[in-house]
Amino acid sequence: MNFVSANKEGSSGKSPHVRRIREFVREIIFDTEANVMVTELACLEPGCPPIETAIVIMGKIPKTYKIDKEMKDVNLEDVRQVLTGGNDHNH
Questions:
Q1: What is the dihedral of CA 71, 60, 34, 85, to 10 degrees?
Q2: Beta carbons of 26 and 57 less than 8 angstroms apart
Q3: In this model, does residue 53 exceed pLDDT 70?
């Protein structure tokens, strides 16, 4: 699959959406110090959602999760589902 970053604000944490999603992740995994990267990806292939939100939890083995929504539309339940396996988009 071909993906390009669609995050106009970057993943530096300046976006309120990035900060909000990071807080959701930290709340769900019970780790207030977790290193979490959040960005948007645009898929250029047919059949892909136009924009996905990618969440990477950094560690010895980074874990990547994708939500088929723009960051602005991601809510706590979306993050909970993808992190707990209630969604088939975790990689």
A1: 50
A2: no
A3: yes
